[in-house]
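Sequence dictates fold. Below is an illustrative record:

_____
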Amino acid sequence: MLMKSRYTLIYVLLMTLVVVASNILVQYPLQATLASINLADILTWGAFTYPVAFLITDLTNRQFGPRAARKVVFAGFVVGVALSFVTAQPRIAIASGSAYLAGQLLDISVFNRLRRMAWWRAPLFGSLIGSLLDTLIFFSFAFAPFFVFFGPNEPFAIDWAPILGVFSTSAPRWISWAIGDFSVKVTVGLVMLLPYGALMNLLKPVPQAPTA
């Protein structure tokens, strides 16, 4: 029990660090170009740090089960919502908190269903499916005109422009932002398999922890 409390506290602190770092770095666009795409128009540095939250959730889930993982997620949710309401508009704060909570909880559920399969399936599919839901909720709540009841629409976000700034097909700009964001989450999710695989033998499941 003491070990579980100690490790859970460490996971909570790591999750808090990731949430705080992502809230800061989301203010800084990625100044680079890829295949004629100006990445500063669709990505911030926060897109690279946020997916680490799924690694923390999955490691907690593997070691102590879903109940402990949910505690870590809710701790990050409290910190994230508090920071968002201080640093961003209410609509962005609502979108951020809702997306984080839904994405992380879905990750926990998917991870539990796949945890007895090949070691990489649970963390990979859990993070990818959770990231997809996270992206859909955040960008829809934050920018889609339908969700105007959360706050006023951002004219620049809903203006139509070529997708990713290079394709002939046009869509509201927030669609390109969502595509870019999810692409990074997929890439980082794949990369996060490396530390997960390295740590899984050190952070073995505790027998008393629930696994479903």
The first strand starts at residue 33 and ends at 34. The two ends are 19 Å apart (CA to CA).
